Amino acid sequence: MSVVDISGLDVSFRSGREEVHVVRDVSLTVGQGETFGLVGASGSGKSTVLRIIAGLNLDWSGKVSLLGEQIAPHHRLQGELRRRVQMVFQHPYGSLHPSHSIGRILSEPLIVHHRPNVRERVTEALAQVGFGPEIASRKPHQLSGGQRQRIGIARALLLEPDLLLLDEPTSALDTSVQAEILNLLTIIKQTRPITYILVSHDRDVIAHMCDRQVEMRAGRIVSET
Amino acid sequence: MTLANIEAATTQTSASSRRALRSVLASKTATIGIILIALLLLTAALAPVLAPYDPIAQDINNRLLPPSDAHWLGTDGFGRDMLSRIIFGTRPSLGLLALVIATSLPIGLIVGISAGFTGGWVERVLMRFTDIVMAFPQLVLALAFVAILGPGLVNSALALTLTGWPAYARQARTEAAAIRQSDFLAAAQMGGIRGARLLFGHVLPLVLPSAIIRVALDLGGIILAAAALGFLGLGVQPPTPEWGAMVSDGTKVIFDQWWVAAAPGAAILIASLAFNLLADGLRDILDPRRD
Amino acid sequence: MTDLVGVENLTVGFKTAEGGRFTAVNGLSFAMGAEKLGIVGESGSGKTMTALTLAGLAPQAAEITADRLEVAGEDLRRFKARDWPKFRGSVVGLIMQDPRSALNPSLIVGRQVEEALRFHPRFGRSERRDRVLSALEAVGLPNPKTLAGLYPHQLSGGMGQRVMIATALVNEPKLLIADEPTSALDEALREQVLELLVSLVESRGMGLILISHDLVQVARHCDRALVMYRGRLVDQGRAADLPNSTHPYTATLWACRPSAATHGQLLPTLDRTVIEASL
Fold it and tell me: Which chain A residues touch C42 with a CB distance below 8 Å?
């Protein structure tokens, strides 16, 4: 069964009188348990495709099905589907609420989903990304970029998603810290059945992580390997 | 979270608020403002203790006395002690101020955050309505409201609220719109957080600080607007002492017994100045272009 | 032989808001001639602060001490604020990370490059113009005459960075400092811009300090390399020998880069306790 099945995806918006096409006729499928790469330069449309899969960009046309469920444009992802698709963002600082503690950032999604044993789950998730429970009282600005990105990964994993979207998760980090984050993602994949879609401009990162990849240029898929 | 963690977290916040207080006290204007405001609050709280006379007790034999040892600020046209009336006059002024802020800030924030965060037609409708209210001169609109509602403390507070919230709404809208596209809000939504929980738990904390500065800048103006309503006889009704109404009483005898108008006028000046000093100091501290 | 750059025991520190002290550069010593020197390290290693200090652009709050701090025979420790602009114009050229934020958006390209010549009043107007055009030509920009009349937002990232290089070179400085000159560019452009930079430096007999987090880039284009960690110099040697360094920090930085060859494997990571212990 395919986790993501996209055909004929189009995204455009009006800028003054012109119609700007960001994504043109993109079709792709991602299978269960794959690590799938979307590579391309800035402005190629790769992040737009990812944000559509994430349910963050609702303005598109075409056919998209996630985890076997057909989704419609202009509709938010609801219920279980919303939980099963999670994302790690590019900018480690911008993706954590600046005035919330790490503990709140991690526990709030669990509380909203009425999960039991919130405290134990948060401690366990922190341990998985290499932190002790005492980090829960810290604020994001007290952490380094790599630490913040690990918190972002812990947050995404806490809801036990089946599909994890990775939007340039290491491009803002040093190579040495990038290695730690990529290793963490590799280890997580070995311990649970999960599908990754990784977006990056860095061919080496894609080649290291991905089983299969497509390259995007000017809104189209230009090659598939 | 273990107890030790909670303790560490609270020490951290108290350390940062102590730092904030220290930087406020480093500003001379803010310090003077804070001292004056503290004195005003103390006066209002201890008015019955501080006032040498009953502020509404009339004494026809001692009308319009000049300042003396017995009556430091003289007496008014009904022989009431001016100092006692000014001391008790802090109560309606500060009370009205508190009422206006406690109502107009939440209204402005709710309208502004909903508009800025939601966008689309919700934003257009809310902001056009805000613009319409804002297009009227504030005091004239407040006068019209009081004329309809009838005079009194609560009604004049209501009038100032109805005309005061649009400024907060506009500012909150701008700030909420600026963070609408942020990744941390996208992440919160992906975590299933939405509705009121998202608006008040995630958007509000980032919009609130600048709204508070804005309120501080408005406080002096609200004191003046309240006094203006009192002066026109639309505020607190006699015999309760109110500064604006006292100035109005004093104007009848201003050439012969000037202190009757000057004393409450000075009180209005000091109160409004105190809040302006604090606001200026706060703005200096928080303005990034400072150094 | 006198060194082009001589630095001994350079320390750059800051007071932190909490009342502590943060040391960005800690006892750094190095000397260089007219060669290509790469400074590598993670972010926060002090490499950028070293470059800014040599150009007099360290933040006002920085407390700078050194036993020796010389560029082209000038003692930078004695410099007053008004000495720096002329020094930056004529002795040291600087290329920053992001061309879009380093260029003034309201000035046409020709004026910006010409700005750099303002400390050479002996040039007449036509000679200044010739120099600007030949500088733009030297960095491989087509149609320098048309280009000189464009505004920065009309240029692509690669063109903007070439204009920055032209601005830095128009005075023929003795030392060029380039701080991550290609990190804002797309991958395909990086090599191109760097090759241009290196060939210009070589043909003019200048010194180059290349600040970079990219060890491969430094190994490929520089003569010598300094490796910094937390403000300290931990390793140095020939740039071409970077892949063979036995220092645990350098070796890991080199080996931790992902590629198709590492697919499915775990990457080596820094053992910071070992590195801290070796300091």
Answer: 174-177
Which amino acid is residue B62, in one-letter code? N
Per-residue model confidence (pLDDT) at position B150: 85
Report d(CA A133, CA A137) in Å as an integer: 9
CA distances (Å), origin B95, targets B154, B265, C232: 9, 18, 61
Tokens of C179: 């701080």
- Closest-CA distance of chain C to residue A118, Å: 31
Between B3-26 and B259-286, two packed helices, what is the crossing angle to 10 degrees? Answer: 120
Q: Closest residue of C to A204, CA-based?
A: C259
- The helix-helix angle for A175-191 and A145-158 (nearest 10°) equals 20
Higher pLDDT, C17 or A60: A60
3-state secondary structure B38-100: HHHHHHHHCHHHHCCCCCCCCCHHHCCCCCCCCCCCCECCCCCEHHHHHHHHHHHHHHHHHHH
How many Å apart are CA B248 and CA B1, to the nearest integer? 61
Whether residue B191 contacts residue A159, with contact meaning beta carbons closer than 8 Å, is answered with yes
Indicate left, alpha or beta for C145 from its phi (over 0: left) and psi (-120 to 50: alpha).
alpha
Q: Which of A179, A201, A208 sits opposite C263 (nearest CB)?
A: A208
pLDDT digits (tens, 9 = 90+) for B166-204: 999 999 999 999 898 899 999 999 999 988 899 999 999
Task: Classify the phi-psi angles of C172: left when phi > 0, otherwise alpha if psi is within -120 to 50, otherwise beta.
Answer: left
CB A142 within 8 A of CB A103: no
Structure tokens that stand for C228 in this block? 């910094």
- Burial bucket for residue A20 (CB in 10 Å: 0-12, 13-18, 19+): exposed
Task: Give the C-alpha distances (Å, rounded to integers) separating C197 from A37, C91, C163, C169.
Answer: 33, 17, 12, 10
Hey, which chains touch A, using 3+ CB pairs under 8 Å?
B, C
Q: Looking at the DSSP assignment, which residues form a beta bridge with residue C209?
A: C37, C177
pTM over 0.95: no
> In this complex, do C258 and A176 lie within 8 Å of one another by their Cβ atoms?
no
Bridge partner list, A13: A20
Cβ atoms C94, C55 nearer than 8 A: yes
CB < 8 Å to A113, chain B = 192
Residues in A closer than 8 angstroms to C211, CB to CB, are none
- Which among A41, A145, A208 has CB closest to C258? A208
pLDDT band at C164 (very low <50, low <70, confident <90, very high): confident
Q: Cα separation of B96 and B153, whole Å?
A: 7
b/e sequence C5-14, b meaning 16+ C-beta within 10 Å: bbbeebbbbb
Amino acid at the residue C269: T
Side-chain half-sphere exposure of C141, counting CA atoms within 13 A? 29
Which two tokens mark B257? 């017994």
B239: cis peptide before it, omega within 30°? yes
Question: What is the Rg, in whole angstroms, of the alpha carbon atoms belonging to chain B?
Answer: 23
A205 in contact with C, Cβ within 8 Å:
yes
Report how far residue A4's alpha carbon sits from residue A106's, in angstroms, rounded to the nearest whole number. 26
- According to DSSP, the residues that pair with C264 across neighbouring strands are none
Residue tagged 């939504």 (tokens): B189
Q: Do A134 and B8 touch (CB under 8 A)?
A: yes
Range with the lowest mean pLDDT among A43-57, A62-76, B19-33? B19-33
Interacting residues of B67 by C-beta distance below 8 A, sequence separation 6+: B73, B74, B259
CA distances (Å), origin B19, targets B15, B205, B281, C16, C197: 6, 19, 15, 13, 48
How far apart are alpha carbons B217 and A16 in whole angstroms?
39
Nearest CB among B2, B9, B183 relative to A89 is that of B183
A117 Cβ contact partners less than 8 Å away, ≥ 6 residues apart: none
A179·C268 Cβ contact <8 A? yes
